[in-house]
Amino acid sequence: MADNSCAEDSFYFGRGIATKQPSRPTVLRDHPDVLGPDPLTLYMPWISRWKKESWPQTRSEVGRFGEDLVAELAEDLGFEVLGRNWRCPNGELDLIVRGADGVIRFVEVRTRTGPRYGSPAESVVPSKLARLRRLGGAWLAAHRDVHGEAAFDVVAVEKDGEDEAKLTWLWNVL
What we know:
Blueprint: E1 12-14, E2 17-19, E3 40-45, H1 59-76, E4 80-88, E5 91-98, E6 104-112, H2 126-142, E7 150-160, E8 164-170
């Protein structure tokens, strides 16, 4: 990451990386480097003013909290949220979004509060990717009125310090 001092409302871009500290990101969809093939890394407040004011305690609360942050980020990036926590007998899709280009993105969100079990992205094993592909097909079959190309992404959410979360959006993992 660039070693730049920045004003509160400044973003610094480089090879698809945008950073802003300490407040919530603003709309980034108009910058050409943001939605490229390289991972997008952003820092967001871990405790959001729109959410509960205490740390998530249980595993399910941590997961839900990460999904909420990613949904906020997707809206800030200009994506239309088509669904959250969509379930079928084969499993669950965390987030389904559509960009301005019409591509439907099936987003797997992985959240960790510390490095004890490795990075969140490392927890997406080949069997999870295969399940994600099957679930994407099931969602498209159930929503025949929605058209567009499909893409599969992973967003890793890591607690970074006392009050920030590091979000890394990995594009087109399948």
